Amino acid sequence: MMTYSKEMIYLSNQITLNDIFKSLPSYPHFVNGIRRAPKRELTLNQKDIKLALKNALRYIPKAWHDEVAPEFLDELLTHGRIYGYRFRPQGQIKGLPIEKYKGKTLEGKALQVMIDNNLDFDVALYPYELVTYGETGQVCQNWMQYHLIKKYLELMTDEQTLSILSGHPLGLFKSHKQAPRVVLTNGLMVGLYDNMKDFNRAQALGVANYGQMTAGGLMYIGPQGIVHGTYSTLLNAGRLKLNIPDHENLKGKLFVSSGLGGMSGAQGKAIEIAGGVGIIAEVDLSRIETRHSQHWVSIVTHDKKETFDIALKYQQSQKAVAIAYHGNVVDLLEYANQNDIKIDLLSDQTSCHAVYEGGYCPVDLSFEERTKLLNQDKSLFIEKVNASLHRHYLAIKALSLKGTFFFDYGNSFLKAIYDSGLKEICKNKENDLDGFIYPSYVEELMGPLLFDYGYGPFRWVCLSGNENDLDLTDQVAMSCIDPKRRFQDKDNYDWIKNAKENQLVVGTKARILYQDAEGRLKIALAFNKLVREKKTGPIMLGRDHHDTGGTDSPFRETANIKDGSNIMADMATHVALGNALRGMSLVALHNGGGVGIGKAINGGYGMVLDGSKRVDEILKQAMIYDVMAGVSRRSWATNKNAFETTKTFNSTHEDASVLLPFVADEKLLDQTMKAKGINDEK
Ligand code: NAD
Hints:
Bound molecules: nicotinamide-adenine-dinucleotide
Helix content: 40-55%
Strand content: 5-15%
Number of strands: 17
Mean pLDDT: 95
Largest sheet: 9 strands, mixed
Distance between the termini: 67 Å
Oligomer: single chain
C-alpha cells in the first residue's frame, strides 16, 4: 500500500510536469494583438484564496513552489483565475497532421490534434486563457492540465481509459479495447450548488471547468460547425414565416443579428449561402477584422444609415451579402425602428449565457469601456446590462409589431431579459416555466423540422491535415445522400456540394454536415472503408452537443418538448452513457453548454476511424443509438415528426424496439376534467 509522507513519493509510472519540463520554463512572451479574456469574477475569501493557491500548486513540482506560488496568486488576483501562463507553449498552437504527435494509440494522437486545434490563435476566442468560444468555454482550466492531458494521451494504451474531470486528468485506468479511450465531464455540480455563484467559486478554486459544448468536449471545428445549422435555421424561418417555397432561397430578404465571435461568427457566412442579405452588429472591431479576413463577412460598416442603404441595394438586386456593422446591436435596432426599415428575420447571438460576465456589451459602452467597467465596478456593469436589455427588448417588440420575425438563437437571450426583471417576456407574465413570448429557434424551427427526424450537426476532421482527404470525404458524403427523399436532404445535399467553394475551413480540415441516424451511419461506414483502403488518412467523427439527443436544455434543444420532461436531464446523460458502453473513442458530458450553468446538461462524442472491422461494429451500434435515443424521447413526448420517425425505425430495425405513446384526445381530457368539476378557471 502506498503511504504518503510530507514529500509525496512518486512511482515510476507516475507523471509530473517534470516529464514535460526538465526545469521551470521561463515566463512567456504574450503575442500582441491576440484577444485576452476579461478578469473573471473573484469573490473568494482569504481562506478560499489560500485553497485556490494550494489546489493549483498540486500540479507543480515542489522545487518550483517558491517561484510559482507568488505568480499564481498574482494571476488569481489579476485575472480571477489561475491559468498557469508560464506553462503555456510559446507562440502559436495548431492542430497538426496526426503523424506529428506521439502516442501508443491512434485515438491518443487524434485527441491531441483536436485539443491543439481548439487552442489555435485563428480558432480560439481567448487562446491564452484556453477559451475556445462562447466567452467562457474552455478546453481545460489551466496550462498544467493541458500538458498532463497530452502526456497521458501519449502514454495511453488501447487497454486503458483516461478520466478527465473538469479539465483535470484524474489518470489512466485499465479498461479494454472496445472501451472509450477518454471519458470526460465538465462542470457537473451537485444539484444544491448548481448555480452561477457556487460555480464561480468552484472555478476560482480550480475545481470546475466551463466546457461550453465542443470547447471542453474537444470537437470544435471553428465557426463552420454552426454555419450549417444557421443556414438551415434561416432557410426554414423563411419557409415558415416568409412563405418562401421549399426550392427557393432567401434572395431579397434582410436578416439582422449580432455577434461575430466564435459561434456567432457563422451568421454572415450562413445568410450569404442562404442567398439573403445579412447585417451583423459587433462591438469588438478585432472580431470583425478576423471574420473579414476569413471572408466570412464581405463588407464592414461603421455608420447605421450607410449599413441599411447598402443592405437595401443588395436586397433590390437580389444579391447575397453579409455586412458587419461595427457598433452595438441595440443602437442598430433602435435606428431601424425609428426609420421604419423592414427587417424580415431578426435574432441575437451575443453571449447572453454569460450576460454579466462580459458576454453582452451594454448599449452606452464601447467594447473597451465594457472591459474596463467589468473589472472596476461589477454592480454598475450589471445595472447597465439590465438597462440595455430593456432597450433591446423594446426595439424588438416594436419591430415585431411591424412584421419582423424574431427568434431566440440559443444564447439564453430571452432568459437574460427575464432575469433582468422583465416578466412581460414570459408567456404567463409571471415566470419562465411556460416559456417566452418569442420562440426559440429550436421550438419552432430546428426542433420540429430537424431534431425530431434525427437531423443534427454531424462532423468530421481529416486527421492527416490533407486537403485531398477533405475533398474525397465531401464527395463520398454527397454520394450517400438522396436529395429527393425530403427537403432536409436536398438542403444537406446542396450544402455539401458547395462546401468547398464556400471556404468554410478555419483550423483543421473539417466538415459539418447535418444528417439523420441512417445518413450518419452510412457516411461513417463509407469513411471507415476509405481509411481501410488507404484512400485517406484516419478520420475523427463527432458532433456538436447541440443535437437531437445530445442536450437537455428547456430554453434551447428541448424547447419543443411539451410533456413536462423538458426540465429533466435524463436523455443527455443516457446518450453519453450509451455511447460509452458502445465504445465511442471519446465521451463527454457537460453542465451549461450554450445557455449557462444549471440550464443544460449536454454531451458529445468523438470516434476515430482507423479502417478496422472493430470500428465498423462500434459505428453500427453507437451511431444509430446516439441519434435514435434522442428521437425516441421526442416521440415519447408526442412530437409528431419524431413519432413517425420512430415508428419507421421500429419497423425497419429488428434488433430495436422503442416504446410508442398512445396520444390522448384533447377533447376527452377536457370532458373528463369538466366532469370532475376541474376547469380552466379553477
Ligand atoms: P462569443 O462570445 O465568441 O461572441 C459573441 C459576440 O457578441 C462577441 O464578439 C461580442 O463582442 C459580441 N457582442 C456582445 N454584446 C454585443 C452587443 N450588445 N452588440 C453587438 N455585439 C455584441 O460567443 P459565441 O461563441 O459567438 O456564442 C454566442 C452565443 O451563442 C453564446 O451564448 C453561445 O452559447 C450561443 N450559441 C448558440 C448556438 C446555436 O446553435 N444557436 C451554438 C453555439 C453557441
